[in-house]
């Protein structure tokens, strides 16, 4: 009996499939290259990490990169250069970098030190940079005081205290002798929110700017109520309290000064006047008004 051709064809197809399933020489070469490049890449990576580790050790351990201790230079380190410092305490700046003295410049956390500098009351802006091999340079921009403030008596000492304040409500205490020609603002408390202090200071500055030269005889502004500023005006060797309200400062002051001689003749003992109604001067404590 003759063999059936169908069986032979089936065997050939099966053999073809087995040969197709075997990895080709090209595939073997491709995988060999992948493994080779992978091994080479790992070798380079390990070598780079090892070299970087050794480089880090060099920067950390080599004495040429260490910041000098302040104790060796009468409390000041030549490795710390500070620019722009006038009223803030130099010791506060040095205290920020105290953990870095005696260590490598490489280890100085620049961003963290900058944030710590910004926490100092006088410092408005600061930058910290590394100057190799062994110096830290600090540039400071200090806050600018715009007025004195008369703080309530301290619970510890029972004494009143004068301090300075900037336009943003930050209370400043000079750490060295300094002279300022600035107005005095009362009614500001250190315990209140800084934004509230800022609002009071801004209201006072706005009034003084509106008054111009008329503010020359004002020695103090009470900002306890920012909607009713009370100024201490020096006239004829007397100190008068003028309630200015919260607007039309210049016209109200002009009206008072134009009528002051008449007011003094009629009310020689009066020292407090309410100017909050335009074109009307009220003697506080006296039922009669001065037009």
Secondary-structure topology with pairs:
Blueprint: H1 5-21, H2 25-61, E1 80-83, H3 90-96, H4 110-118, E2 123-131, E3 135-142, E4 145-151, E5 161-166, E6 171-172, E7 184-186, H5 194-211, E8 218-222, E9 229-235, E10 238-245, H6 249-266, E11 272-274, E12 281-283, E13 289-290
Structural commentary:
With 291 residues, the chain is an alpha/beta fold. It has two domains: 65-142, Ubiquitin-like (UB roll) (Roll), CATH 3.10.20; 145-290, Cell division protein FtsQ/DivIB (Rossmann fold). It has helices at residues 5-21, 25-61, 90-96, 110-118, 194-211, 249-266, and strands spanning 80-83, 123-131, 135-142, 145-151, 161-166, 171-172, 184-186, 218-222, 229-235, 238-245, 272-274, 281-283, 289-290. The chain has a ten-stranded mixed beta sheet. A hairpin with a 6-residue loop joins strand 11 and strand 12. It is elongated and about 115 Å long. The mean pLDDT is 85.
Q: What's the CATH topology name of the largest domain?
A: Rossmann fold
- Biggest sheet, spatial arrangement of strands: 6-5-4-7-8-9-10-11-12-13
Count of discrete structural domains: 2
CATH superfamily of the largest domain: Cell division protein FtsQ/DivIB
Our Rg estimate from Cα atoms comes to 39 Å
Assigned CATH architecture of the largest domain: 3-Layer(aba) Sandwich
Biggest sheet record: 10 strands, mixed
Nearest-integer average pLDDT: 85
Low-confidence segments = none
Note the total helix count: 6
